[in-house]
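Our platform keeps sequence and structure together, in a single record for each protein. Because each token names a local backbone shape, the row as a whole describes the fold. One such record is reproduced below, unchanged from the form in which we store it:
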Amino acid sequence: MKVLEMRGLARAYERGRNVLEDLDLTIEAGEVIGLLGRNGAGKTTLLRLALGLLEPQHGEVKVFGLDPQREPEAVKRRVGYVAEDQILPGFLRVHEVIDLHRRLYPGWDEELAAELASRFHMRGDQRIKQLSKGQARQVALLCAVAHRPSLLLLDEPAGGLDPAMRREFLETAIQLLGESGTAIVFSSHHMTDVERLASRLVMLHDSQKWIDSALDDVREGYCLALAPLADGVSARAMLAQADCLSARERDGTVRAIFELDPEACRRRLEREFSPRELRCLPLPLEEMFIELVGRGGWS
């Protein structure tokens, strides 16, 4: 079942500068998507469009077959959302925040909410402003998942948390909802989290969707080619090859990412260039991200 469909999607905040452009994306029930991208790549914009918090300027968004702009209540009742900058009312007590969400969602699961409160050692009488950042995120996660949404959107929800709490946070969401067919989309800059938890990888760059593949296919079907800058080998020549996603020159060496397994890449480049030296290596996810989108800041 299609949970989320985006077709020809475009969104800009400044005239002539699209954050997302002509983007197509389909997510099925039960999928766990790791969403990657640099500063301004459009990850947060994509999630807000899915929730109906933003309206596309071109294209269409369907969530459970519904337009989130025209039928916001019907969509939001079936979606859970935790934002990177999630703000809960600081003057409310934990139990008051939970009570508020309980009233909003007809599908609220009291047993699941109690399990999460116990797992996170929550004290219902504490005010939100008394909580640490991690504790406040746990309250937000409980409120997002206790109604067992059909789609859970997590926008850097574990940013700023220590590694142990980050892992607990993400694994809890996926463990609790994975068996019920919930589709989960989470953005993260922690490649270990993506590799451990996601079944599919979507990478955004320069307003485009660069990669959309099962994680196992990414591990096996991409490689890094290293060849001396000579004998007709250059970044431009590499980029002219089919299946080359990026190429750059550094210290007399051309470094290129190919959507090919290492052996197929080696055969292709030896046939095209006959370089004196050539290495085609499997590519860890973090290294691939750095090579593809550069060494600039993270969003």
Notes: The radius of gyration is 22 Å. The chain has a mean pLDDT of 89. The first strand starts at residue 2 and ends at 14. The CA atoms of residues 2 and 28 lie 5 Å apart.
